[in-house]
UniProtKB/TrEMBL annotation:
Gene3D superfamilies: 1.10.530.10. This is Transglycosylase SLT domain-containing protein. Residues 1-26 form the signal peptide. It comes from Massilia polaris. Keywords: Signal. InterPro entries: Lysozyme-like_dom_sf (IPR023346).
Amino acid sequence: MKLKSTAGLLVALFAAGMAGAPSAIADGKARELNVHAKKYQQYFAAASAEFSVPAELLESIAYAETRWRHHMPKGQARKNGEPDVEVDPHGGMPPNYGIMGLRNDAHFGSSPAQAAGLIREQPAALLSSTRANIRGAAALLAHYGARKTRAFALEDWTQAVALYSGIPQPEIAQLYTYEVFAAIRQGREGGEYKIRQRHVDMEKIYGRDKLKKLAAPRITVETGVPDPTISAPGFQSK
């Protein structure tokens, strides 16, 4: 998906987080996960059980945000041997932290502090520990899910995923949810990540016309207005 915007930080950040051609399970090629990704799978499963949120959502959000790479504040590299990416809060766009892409800024809110409070940890722990980051994100998703459990259909978690994104514009937050659910429906697999393929009724979530627009190879997002809209060149609704 390529994004073209007239202005706005949100679209730039969204595009950066979602960029890159996905690896789908459908190509039939098995890929062996590295040792760190296998450990993260265990963390996702444990957090899913602890907070009763679908493990696939945690896997897919981590894929959308960081491709399962733990993001650390600049100058605070970890010493546990796990791979990480150093991010600079002064690099022009608000950074995301940890494997789950938590954010702490005026645009997207302070999810590290909120998530830390839910699991009774210090926010710093969620920045340095992948396990704590995943637990905090799962607790936050459960909070937004308003008493939903992992027994609920994935489609029922759409609003919780939108709230998790921290994106205030509903139309742009919907792009985020689409990428998360599309990754689960199609499956994603590489040496550093794996999202288990599971059926998601995308038409139930978005409606037929909106789904066609979201699935277009190129879309335009207009920002700089209170209620931005998305469009796809050549798209015509019935």
